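Q: Okay, next protein. This is Triosephosphate isomerase from Nocardiopsis composta. I've checked the sequence twice, so it should be correct. Can you predict the 3D structure?
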Amino acid sequence: MNAALWIGTSFKMNKTRAQAVAYAARLREAVGAGIPGVQPFVLPSATALAEVTAALGPERTVLTGVQNAHWASAGAWTGELSVPQAADAGAAIVEIGHSERRAHFAETDATVRLKVEAVLRHGLTPLVCCGESAEDFARGRSVDRVLEQVAAAFDGIGGTGRALVAYEPVWAIGEHGRAPRPEEIAPVHRALAEEWGDRTAGVLYGGSVTPANAPELLMVPGVGGLFAGRSAWRVEGYLALLEAGRAHLAPAG
């Protein structure tokens, strides 16, 4: 789908299978045949992926995916999930390089690139996360740091048109993150749009996204969608974000 806006959520390490399926069933009921111009997507825990995908229905109005995958197609990688396994369970999207993975699980620019190549090779959509630390933000290095991360992710890889990029400043994400002002993220999104807007399927913003601030975030030039966490863990919150996307695309007047 050539969506004008991508709006998604990651459940992170939350929800049992039953809870995730109940969420998916309610979402399918509410979204129906879809929202013109908006591509919804949900990244549940891997344990619930197949059941959530089935509950959302064969129409694939709402895409599903995983929050991480290994770069190898198979092998002796204890505890890991391959891209073919994710696809077999229904995944269309693979999130790569989230700051929590980088900080706590030794994810690097090099392994991000390996994973991007693997996801594209197997025909899925990589969702590449990037974002600067609070220190880089304070030093005025946001644009440089983010462009470095994205360039490293796609280094030497052709055919990035299926890929998504999610700009998630580290200082804005998580329970203690600070919601950004539009002018704080605008320079990064402008730079990403100029450098990668025509070479990817979309550049999203993520980090303290809520239904309340979604309209102003979507107004930032270069923002091609939203990637939310805790505000969308209740289906009502996610539906409110989808409604913000619909309203953003609605003709004025």
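A: Here is a summary of the prediction. The domain at 5-249 is CATH 3.20.20.70 (TIM Barrel). The chain has one domain: 5-249.
Q: Noted. On to the next one.
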